[in-house]
Design a protein that fits this description.
The protein is of the alpha/beta class and about 300 residues long. It has twelve helices and ten strands. Helices cover about 50% and strands about 20% of the residues. The strands form two sheets. It has an eight-stranded mixed beta sheet, with helices on both faces. InterPro entries: LysR-type_TF_proteobact-type, LysR_HTH_N, LysR_subst-bd, WH-like_DNA-bd_sf, WH_DNA-bd_sf.
């Protein structure tokens, strides 16, 4: 009984070791599969975009790893040995499964459009208008991601992005949506406080800590020479700054995308009607490969129409 148990345990250990034995290097397996399918070092090298010498070295590495010869070198090419003939079908099946898995990962639903945007543009401009796009294209499933990082479209599985800047990003197609302007806005309750542009310099002023612009940019355009003084209330982002402005905490240095709906609703007023231009704009961007995808064209046409309506 003891001997039988020992033999069973030994076999189990051998099986365990085989199950966890390291596989040969993947590149050497790829080289063997390509040679078995194509028959020569040169053809395999051309397919894998390496030299014939590199393919030959990969086969030597694999044969040394396995301790067996896999190919006979002949004048007509590489001929599988008996061991190679047993190995090749499994390699072909394995790489076919890998290719199938990669294709499945890259497969896209033709009805899904993925758009990325900064959170402020998405929340204050895009989301309130997306219903009209869905009415026009009910079969398209929009996936909206709010991210302030630059998107690598072909790697991040994103079709379109809305970016803020100068429009000179490398490797993307870009079309301008809206020039950026800055203007003071405040709650109606502060109308008496801000009667002339110089009153902004005396405060109270709201500051968006993430903004690319400062109050001095607007004051210079408005011709205000007074030193900046008085109270400043600082918020961490534009959303909070906007809420503070509507609550009457001070004047906010806004821009149309963020403040126009609040102006139309009467939550904010524009006391001076003086807009300062900037060198920046909102841009619709995508990769060259995705630019003419039908869903991308449909969204592009729609958002350009919406921008024209917005600017009227």
């Amino acid at each position: 009984m003891t001997i039988i148990q020992f033999r069973h345990s030994r076999q189990a250990l051998e099986n365990l070791n085989m199950a966890h034995s390291p596989l040969p290097p993947l590149n050497s397996l790829r080289a063997a599969e390509a040679i078995g399918r194509l028959g020569t070092l040169q053809k395999a090298a051309a397919e894998l975009n390496v030299t014939a010498g590199a393919i030959s070295q990969q086969i030597k590495t694999l044969e040394q790893f396995l301790g067996i010869g896999l190919f006979d070198r002949t004048e007509k090419g590489m001929v599988p040995t008996a061991a190679g003939a047993r190995l090749l079908p499994g390699l072909s099946t394995g790489f076919a499964h890998i290719r199938g898995g990669v294709d499945a990962a890259l497969e896209r639903d033709d009805n899904v459009l993925t758009v990325t945007s900064g959170v402020v543009f998405a929340g204050k401009w895009l989301v309130p208008r997306l219903g009209r796009f869905r009415e026009r294209h009910p079969g398209i499933d929009i996936r909206l991601s709010t991210d302030n990082h630059l998107t690598a479209f072909d790697h991040d599985d994103v079709d379109l992005g809305i970016r803020f800047g100068r429009g000179d990003w490398p490797g993307v197609r870009a079309i301008k949506l809206l020039d950026q302007q800055i203007l003071p806005v405040c709650a109606p309750s502060l109308a008496e406080r801000f009667k002339k542009p110089g009153d902004i310099a005396r405060g109270p002023r709201i500051v968006d800590a993430q903004s690319m612009f400062v109050w001095q940019d607007w004051l210079d355009i408005a011709g205000v020479n007074h030193p900046i003084e008085g109270t400043e209330i600082r918020y961490s982002d534009a959303y909070l700054a906007l809420e503070g402005a509507m609550a009457g905490h001070g004047a906010m240095l806004g821009w149309p995308v963020v403040v126009q709906d609040a102006l139309k609703n009467g939550d904010l007023i524009e006391p001076f009607n003086i807009c300062a231009p900037t060198p920046f704009a909102y841009w619709l961007v995508s990769s060259e490969r995705r630019w003419n995808r039908p869903l991308v064209r449909q969204f592009r046409d729609w958002i350009m129409e919406e921008m024209l309506l917005f600017q009227k």
